[in-house]
Amino acid sequence: MMAACLADGETIIENAACEPEVTDLANCLIAMGAKISGAGSDVIRIEGVSRLHGARHRVMPDRIETGTYLCAAAVTGGQVRLTGTQASSLDAVIDKLIEAGCTIQCEPDSIHLSSPRRLTAVSLRTAPYPAFPTDMQAQFMALDCVADGAATIRETIFENRFMHAVELQRLGADIHIDGNTAMVRGVERLQGATVMATDLRASASLVIAGLVAEDVTTIERIYHLDRGYEYLDEKLAALGAKVLRVK
Protein backbone atom coordinates (compact mmCIF):
# COMPACT_ATOMS: atom_id res chain seq x y z
CA MET A 1 0.00 0.00 0.00
CA MET A 2 2.85 2.41 0.82
CA ALA A 3 4.73 1.49 -2.34
CA ALA A 4 1.62 1.93 -4.49
CA CYS A 5 1.10 5.51 -3.29
CA LEU A 6 3.95 6.69 -5.55
CA ALA A 7 3.54 4.11 -8.34
CA ASP A 8 2.23 5.12 -11.77
CA GLY A 9 -1.46 4.37 -12.29
CA GLU A 10 -3.89 2.46 -10.09
CA THR A 11 -2.97 -0.44 -7.84
CA ILE A 12 -5.60 -2.86 -6.52
CA ILE A 13 -4.79 -5.01 -3.50
CA GLU A 14 -7.11 -8.01 -3.20
CA ASN A 15 -7.56 -10.21 -0.13
CA ALA A 16 -6.16 -7.36 1.96
CA ALA A 17 -6.05 -7.55 5.75
CA CYS A 18 -8.95 -5.71 7.41
CA GLU A 19 -7.24 -4.97 10.73
CA PRO A 20 -7.69 -1.44 12.09
CA GLU A 21 -3.93 -0.88 11.82
CA VAL A 22 -4.30 -1.04 8.02
CA THR A 23 -6.98 1.63 8.13
CA ASP A 24 -4.84 3.72 10.48
CA LEU A 25 -1.90 3.55 8.08
CA ALA A 26 -4.17 4.48 5.17
CA ASN A 27 -5.47 7.49 7.09
CA CYS A 28 -1.89 8.62 7.72
CA LEU A 29 -0.98 8.24 4.04
CA ILE A 30 -4.15 10.05 2.95
CA ALA A 31 -3.21 12.94 5.24
CA MET A 32 0.13 13.00 3.38
CA GLY A 33 -1.62 13.31 0.02
CA ALA A 34 -2.16 9.68 -1.00
CA LYS A 35 -5.31 8.59 -2.83
CA ILE A 36 -6.52 5.39 -1.11
CA SER A 37 -9.99 3.87 -0.90
CA GLY A 38 -11.30 0.66 0.60
CA ALA A 39 -8.96 0.43 3.61
CA GLY A 40 -10.63 -1.77 6.21
CA SER A 41 -12.15 -4.01 3.52
CA ASP A 42 -10.55 -6.89 1.61
CA VAL A 43 -10.03 -4.77 -1.55
CA ILE A 44 -7.92 -1.60 -1.40
CA ARG A 45 -7.48 0.75 -4.37
CA ILE A 46 -4.56 3.16 -4.58
CA GLU A 47 -4.15 5.80 -7.28
CA GLY A 48 -0.52 6.80 -7.49
CA VAL A 49 0.50 10.43 -6.95
CA SER A 50 3.72 12.20 -7.86
CA ARG A 51 4.72 13.02 -4.30
CA LEU A 52 3.62 12.94 -0.67
CA HIS A 53 3.89 15.81 1.81
CA GLY A 54 4.31 16.07 5.55
CA ALA A 55 1.36 15.63 7.91
CA ARG A 56 0.48 15.12 11.56
CA HIS A 57 -1.00 11.78 12.56
CA ARG A 58 -1.54 10.12 15.93
CA VAL A 59 -0.91 6.38 15.73
CA MET A 60 -3.79 4.29 17.07
CA PRO A 61 -3.39 2.56 20.47
CA ASP A 62 -1.89 -0.94 20.49
CA ARG A 63 -4.95 -3.18 20.88
CA ILE A 64 -2.88 -6.29 21.66
CA GLU A 65 -1.00 -4.52 24.46
CA THR A 66 -4.36 -3.38 25.80
CA GLY A 67 -5.73 -6.93 25.65
CA THR A 68 -2.66 -8.30 27.43
CA TYR A 69 -3.10 -5.96 30.40
CA LEU A 70 -6.80 -6.81 30.54
CA CYS A 71 -5.93 -10.52 30.72
CA ALA A 72 -3.33 -9.88 33.42
CA ALA A 73 -5.87 -8.07 35.58
CA ALA A 74 -8.51 -10.73 34.91
CA VAL A 75 -6.26 -13.66 35.84
CA THR A 76 -5.13 -12.08 39.11
CA GLY A 77 -8.68 -11.30 40.23
CA GLY A 78 -7.97 -7.60 40.18
CA GLN A 79 -9.27 -4.54 38.46
CA VAL A 80 -7.64 -2.04 36.15
CA ARG A 81 -8.51 1.07 34.17
CA LEU A 82 -6.63 1.42 30.90
CA THR A 83 -6.51 4.86 29.34
CA GLY A 84 -5.48 6.03 25.90
CA THR A 85 -6.98 2.98 24.22
CA GLN A 86 -9.88 2.08 21.91
CA ALA A 87 -12.42 -0.50 22.99
CA SER A 88 -13.92 -0.49 19.49
CA SER A 89 -10.87 -2.37 18.14
CA LEU A 90 -11.16 -5.10 20.79
CA ASP A 91 -14.77 -6.27 20.53
CA ALA A 92 -13.93 -9.98 20.22
CA VAL A 93 -11.49 -9.89 23.14
CA ILE A 94 -13.84 -7.93 25.39
CA ASP A 95 -16.71 -10.31 24.60
CA LYS A 96 -14.57 -13.28 25.70
CA LEU A 97 -13.51 -11.54 28.91
CA ILE A 98 -17.15 -10.87 29.74
CA GLU A 99 -17.91 -14.52 28.98
CA ALA A 100 -15.15 -15.45 31.43
CA GLY A 101 -16.99 -13.50 34.13
CA CYS A 102 -15.35 -10.06 34.03
CA THR A 103 -17.27 -6.81 34.32
CA ILE A 104 -16.12 -4.30 31.73
CA GLN A 105 -17.06 -0.66 31.23
CA CYS A 106 -15.94 1.02 28.02
CA GLU A 107 -15.53 4.72 27.33
CA PRO A 108 -14.29 6.40 24.13
CA ASP A 109 -10.65 6.30 25.25
CA SER A 110 -10.57 3.98 28.27
CA ILE A 111 -11.57 0.51 29.49
CA HIS A 112 -12.28 -0.48 33.09
CA LEU A 113 -12.19 -4.19 34.01
CA SER A 114 -13.17 -5.88 37.26
CA SER A 115 -12.46 -9.58 37.62
CA PRO A 116 -14.41 -12.17 39.63
CA ARG A 117 -12.77 -14.29 42.31
CA ARG A 118 -12.24 -17.04 39.72
CA LEU A 119 -12.75 -16.89 36.00
CA THR A 120 -14.81 -19.28 33.90
CA ALA A 121 -12.94 -21.09 31.12
CA VAL A 122 -13.73 -19.78 27.63
CA SER A 123 -13.30 -21.55 24.30
CA LEU A 124 -12.18 -19.59 21.26
CA ARG A 125 -11.16 -19.84 17.63
CA THR A 126 -8.70 -17.41 16.09
CA ALA A 127 -9.59 -15.85 12.74
CA PRO A 128 -8.89 -12.67 10.76
CA TYR A 129 -10.24 -9.36 12.07
CA PRO A 130 -12.87 -8.64 13.33
CA ALA A 131 -12.87 -12.16 14.81
CA PHE A 132 -10.68 -13.20 17.75
CA PRO A 133 -7.04 -12.19 17.08
CA THR A 134 -4.30 -14.80 16.97
CA ASP A 135 -2.08 -12.38 18.90
CA MET A 136 -4.34 -12.80 21.96
CA GLN A 137 -4.51 -16.60 21.82
CA ALA A 138 -1.54 -17.24 24.12
CA GLN A 139 -2.76 -14.78 26.75
CA PHE A 140 -6.16 -16.45 26.86
CA MET A 141 -4.56 -19.87 27.12
CA ALA A 142 -2.84 -18.63 30.29
CA LEU A 143 -6.21 -17.36 31.50
CA ASP A 144 -7.88 -20.72 30.85
CA CYS A 145 -5.10 -22.53 32.74
CA VAL A 146 -6.43 -21.24 36.07
CA ALA A 147 -10.10 -20.77 35.16
CA ASP A 148 -12.96 -22.94 36.34
CA GLY A 149 -13.81 -25.65 33.80
CA ALA A 150 -12.32 -26.70 30.48
CA ALA A 151 -11.92 -24.87 27.19
CA THR A 152 -10.91 -25.56 23.60
CA ILE A 153 -8.62 -23.18 21.73
CA ARG A 154 -8.35 -23.56 17.98
CA GLU A 155 -5.59 -21.74 16.11
CA THR A 156 -6.42 -21.16 12.43
CA ILE A 157 -3.94 -18.41 11.50
CA PHE A 158 -0.40 -19.60 12.24
CA GLU A 159 1.05 -23.08 12.36
CA ASN A 160 3.12 -24.11 15.36
CA ARG A 161 1.76 -21.33 17.56
CA PHE A 162 1.26 -23.49 20.64
CA MET A 163 4.92 -23.51 21.69
CA HIS A 164 3.98 -21.67 24.89
CA ALA A 165 1.78 -24.62 25.92
CA VAL A 166 4.84 -26.72 26.83
CA GLU A 167 6.19 -23.89 28.98
CA LEU A 168 2.81 -23.42 30.69
CA GLN A 169 2.84 -27.14 31.44
CA ARG A 170 6.11 -26.61 33.34
CA LEU A 171 4.07 -24.37 35.65
CA GLY A 172 1.53 -27.13 36.20
CA ALA A 173 -1.03 -26.30 33.50
CA ASP A 174 -3.26 -29.09 32.20
CA ILE A 175 -3.03 -28.69 28.41
CA HIS A 176 -3.39 -31.27 25.64
CA ILE A 177 -2.45 -30.38 22.05
CA ASP A 178 -4.03 -32.08 19.05
CA GLY A 179 -2.91 -30.47 15.80
CA ASN A 180 -4.17 -26.89 15.73
CA THR A 181 -6.42 -27.41 18.77
CA ALA A 182 -5.52 -27.09 22.44
CA MET A 183 -7.69 -28.53 25.20
CA VAL A 184 -7.13 -26.65 28.45
CA ARG A 185 -8.53 -27.74 31.80
CA GLY A 186 -8.24 -25.18 34.57
CA VAL A 187 -6.29 -26.08 37.71
CA GLU A 188 -6.58 -24.62 41.20
CA ARG A 189 -3.08 -23.19 41.16
CA LEU A 190 0.12 -23.02 39.13
CA GLN A 191 3.60 -23.56 40.55
CA GLY A 192 6.52 -21.26 39.79
CA ALA A 193 9.33 -22.62 37.62
CA THR A 194 11.94 -21.54 35.09
CA VAL A 195 10.40 -21.22 31.63
CA MET A 196 11.56 -19.98 28.24
CA ALA A 197 9.88 -17.43 25.98
CA THR A 198 9.58 -18.73 22.42
CA ASP A 199 7.97 -15.71 20.74
CA LEU A 200 6.43 -12.34 21.55
CA ARG A 201 2.93 -13.37 22.60
CA ALA A 202 4.13 -16.59 24.19
CA SER A 203 6.33 -14.55 26.50
CA ALA A 204 3.34 -12.39 27.47
CA SER A 205 1.34 -15.51 28.36
CA LEU A 206 4.17 -16.72 30.61
CA VAL A 207 4.23 -13.39 32.43
CA ILE A 208 0.48 -13.62 32.99
CA ALA A 209 0.78 -17.17 34.28
CA GLY A 210 3.69 -16.17 36.49
CA LEU A 211 1.57 -13.49 38.14
CA VAL A 212 -0.70 -16.14 39.66
CA ALA A 213 1.77 -19.01 40.08
CA GLU A 214 2.98 -19.81 43.59
CA ASP A 215 6.59 -18.97 44.45
CA VAL A 216 8.95 -17.57 41.81
CA THR A 217 8.62 -17.86 38.04
CA THR A 218 11.71 -17.04 35.98
CA ILE A 219 11.20 -16.26 32.30
CA GLU A 220 14.25 -16.51 30.06
CA ARG A 221 14.84 -15.01 26.59
CA ILE A 222 12.64 -11.98 27.28
CA TYR A 223 14.07 -10.15 24.29
CA HIS A 224 10.97 -11.50 22.56
CA LEU A 225 8.84 -9.61 25.07
CA ASP A 226 10.62 -6.32 24.48
CA ARG A 227 9.71 -6.37 20.79
CA GLY A 228 6.08 -5.69 21.60
CA TYR A 229 5.81 -4.26 25.10
CA GLU A 230 7.46 -1.12 26.44
CA TYR A 231 8.34 -1.18 30.16
CA LEU A 232 5.99 -4.11 30.77
CA ASP A 233 7.69 -4.97 34.05
CA GLU A 234 7.49 -1.40 35.34
CA LYS A 235 3.83 -1.04 34.40
CA LEU A 236 2.88 -4.30 36.09
CA ALA A 237 4.91 -3.35 39.16
CA ALA A 238 2.99 -0.08 39.36
CA LEU A 239 -0.19 -2.16 39.56
CA GLY A 240 1.15 -4.15 42.48
CA ALA A 241 2.83 -7.10 40.75
CA LYS A 242 6.11 -8.42 42.13
CA VAL A 243 8.17 -8.29 38.95
CA LEU A 244 11.93 -7.91 38.70
CA ARG A 245 13.98 -7.68 35.51
CA VAL A 246 17.29 -9.48 36.01
CA LYS A 247 20.17 -8.27 33.85
Notes on the structure:
β7 (124-125), α4 and β8 form a beta-alpha-beta unit. α2 packs parallel to α6 and α4 (137-145) runs parallel beside α6. The relative contact order is 0.11. The chain has 2 domains: 3-47, no CATH class; 63-238, Alpha-beta prism (UDP-n-acetylglucosamine1-carboxyvinyl-transferase, Chain), CATH 3.65.10. The chain is built from 8 helices and 12 strands. A 4-stranded mixed β-sheet has the order 7-8-10-9, with helices on one face. It has 247 residues and is an alpha+beta fold. Helix content is 30%, strand content 21%. The chain is elongated, with a radius of gyration of 20 Å.
Brief summary of the model shown:
With 247 residues, this protein is an alpha+beta fold.
Question: Which terms summarize this structure?
Answer:
single chain; alpha+beta; 2 domains; 4-stranded mixed beta sheet; 3-stranded antiparallel beta sheet; 21% strand
Largest sheet: 4 strands, mixed
Mean pLDDT: 96
Helix proportion of residues, in percent? 25-40%
Structural class, by secondary structure, is alpha+beta
Give the second-level CATH assignment, the architecture of the largest domain: Alpha-beta prism
Task: Give the overall shape, derived from the CA principal axes.
Answer: elongated
Strand order of the largest sheet: 7-8-10-9
Sheet-strand content, in percent, reads: 15-25%
CATH superfamily of the largest domain: Enolpyruvate transferase domain
For this structure, the CATH topology of the largest domain is UDP-n-acetylglucosamine1-carboxyvinyl-transferase, Chain
